[in-house]
Amino acid sequence: MKQRIGLLVLTAVVGGSLFAGLAGAKTHAVKPKVVTVTMVDFRFKFSPKTPLKHGVKYTFKVVNKGNALHNFDIQGVKASKVIPKGKTTAITVTFNKAKKYQYICDVPRHAELGMAGSLTVK
């Protein structure tokens, strides 16, 4: 009887240690790198401006400081929702390949007025 209780206690301790180790591992997950995309009428500003790397997770914090509705669309990858003046949204992206990715504002005529460009991913 004492052996069974001892075995049960040992199993609980080992199982608890494993669970604590796994739970701790999740808290050390790599956070996405944040790139702020500020939209004004009719251009984008990026901060920081460093080249992006493929295989790295990025969160694009999209801020509309213009007077019109705007969005940030990385063509063929992901687009933010259209947001009004003074609002912020975010999209998270991991680029799978090193190449140039085109981006635009999808609001009609905004790309033609200058809200377009390319991101270099190395």
List the helices and strands and how they pair.
Blueprint: H1 2-27, E1 33-40, E2 43-47, E3 57-64, E4 73-74, E5 78-79, E6 88-94, E7 99-104, E8 116-121
Parallel strand pairs: 1-3
Antiparallel strand pairs: 1-2, 3-6, 4-5, 4-7, 7-8
Tell me about this structure.
By secondary structure, the chain is α+β, with helices and mostly antiparallel strands. It folds into 2 domains: 1-30; 33-121, Immunoglobulin-like (Sandwich), CATH 2.60.40.420. It contains 1 helix and 8 strands; from the N terminus they run αββββββββ. The chain has one helix at residues 2-27, and strands at residues 33-40, 43-47, 57-64, 73-74, 78-79, 88-94, 99-104, 116-121. Strands 2-1-3-6 form a 4-stranded mixed sheet, with no helix packed on it. The longest helix is centred in the N-terminal third of the chain and has 26 residues, at 2-27. The N and C termini lie far apart (64 Å). The model is unreliable at 6-10 and 13-19 (pLDDT under 50).
Features of this protein?
122 residues, 2 domains, 1 helix, 21% helix, globular, Immunoglobulin-like, alpha+beta, four-stranded mixed sheet
